[in-house]
Amino acid sequence: MNDTAVLAAGCVLWRRSPVTGDLEVCLVHRPKYDDWSHPKGKLKRDEEALAGALREVAEETGYASDPGGELPTLRYPANGRPKQVRYWAAEAVSGHFTPNDEVDRILWLSPAAARDRLTQPRDRDLLDAFLRPSGQPRRA
After folding, report:
1. CA atoms within 13 A on the CB side of 136
2. 108 contacts: CB under 8 Å, gap ≥ 6
3. Measured between alpha carbons, how far apart are the two ends of the chain, in Å?
4. Alpha carbons 41 and 2: distance in angstroms, whole number
5. Residue 43, SS3 per DSSP
6. What is the distance between the alpha carbons of residues 57 and 113, in angstroms, rounded to a whole number?
7. Homologous superfamily assigned to 6-131
8. How far apart are CA 43 and CA 34, in angstroms?
9. Cα separations (Å) of 10 from 2, 18, 136?
10. Can you give the residue ranges of every domain in the chain?
11. What SS3 class is residue 134?
12. Which of 84, 88, 17, 15 minimizes the C-alpha distance to 56?
């Protein structure tokens, strides 16, 4: 077994609803795993975590985003190796989703609906951290 951690990064991507102005969170559906999660992915060699997080958001959702504060880092086993994923809050500023091989659907949901839709409990914990007053959408 390889003990070297897989390094990844992602964001809790959010926006204000264009209709109501209420907070919405973007979730991605990955057909390979048939799950709903926050956009994230592995870092490239020597890539800074925040740059990787914003790149992954753009690749998976089609949205450019404005990063805010850092959220808790998640650590868990993946395919027999430890995985470490750093997260930030990020506001979607522009873009348009186009389905691809990695992500076939995205949803913009209220925080409560997003919490219900997320597949992994750790992703619900991350959403809860984002929603706490200290984690509420904020600028870096």
Report:
1. 5
2. 15, 17, 24, 25, 26
3. 38
4. 19
5. coil
6. 20
7. Nucleoside Triphosphate Pyrophosphohydrolase (3.90.79.10)
8. 22
9. 23, 24, 17
10. 6-131
11. coil
12. 88
Tokens of 3: 């003990």
Q: Which residue has the tokens 């219900």?
A: 116
Amino acid at 58: A
Residue in the block written with tokens 């998640």: 74
Site of tokens 């951290």: 129
Collapsing DSSP to helix, strand or coil, 38 comes out as coil
* Digitized pLDDT (tens) for each residue of the chain, 140 residues in all: 456 899 999 999 999 999 999 999 999 999 999 999 999 999 999 999 999 999 999 999 999 999 999 999 999 998 899 999 999 999 999 999 999 999 999 999 999 999 999 999 999 999 999 999 754 454 43
- The first and second tokens of residue 94, run together, are 């522009």
